[in-house]
Amino acid sequence: MELLIKRLINKVKEIANDITIPIIYQFLDRFNLVLYLHFEKKTPNIVFKQRDIYEINLGQNVGSELNKKRPCIIISNQSFNKGNTVIILPLKGIRETTRIGIITISIDFLKSGLKKPTYCSCFNIREVSKKRIGQYIGTITNENRKIINNSLSIIFGLKKQATP
């Protein structure tokens, strides 16, 4: 722990002239969230169901990763959800520029408990701690599940993409 703190102090000294107040607030917010998730929030003793949508705090992004609290689909199977983590697909609101296709899937928001048109990009698949999981929102339709499974099979090379 001491080594980590020393490295942090040295890094701050290195970039001291470039640090702005907003950066300090972002760092403190992220640090506060990490402390809360690690030391205060208990891991829910729940086996989350595949296809369910929950609000999940994804934290801060690196590069083009999705961040903040957002609805996410639990895609890992219940038998794998008994541990401390689950595999999820984050959801995003649809914009005019969103191109729905093989990897970017429109979610039937009216039947899934969502409040607005939403999509998921199967490239955003990730594992998260159950401590990040918040309120239950709904469940995706069986049709959406089939489309997502097909897209994931293509991404992982388990199935070839059909040629038009």
List keywords for this structure.
seven-stranded antiparallel sheet, about 25% strand, globular, 4 helices, SH3 type barrels, about 160 residues, alpha+beta, about 30% helix, 2 domains
Q: Could you explain the architecture of this structure?
A:
With 164 residues, the protein is an alpha+beta fold. It has two domains: 2-40; 52-155, SH3 type barrels. It has four helices and seven strands, in the order H-H-E-E-E-E-H-E-E-E-H. It is globular. It starts with a helix and ends in a 9-residue tail after the last helix.
In brief:
With 164 residues, this protein is an alpha+beta fold.
Separation of the first and last Cα atoms: 56 Å
Rg for CA atoms: 19 Å
CA-based shape: globular
Here the CATH topology of the largest domain equals SH3 type barrels
Tally the beta strands.
7
List the helices and strands and how they pair.
Blueprint: H1 2-14, H2 21-40, E1 52-57, E2 69-74, E3 85-93, E4 104-107, H3 109-112, E5 118-121, E6 126-129, E7 133-139, H4 142-155
Antiparallel strand pairs: 1-2, 1-7, 2-3, 3-5, 3-6, 4-5
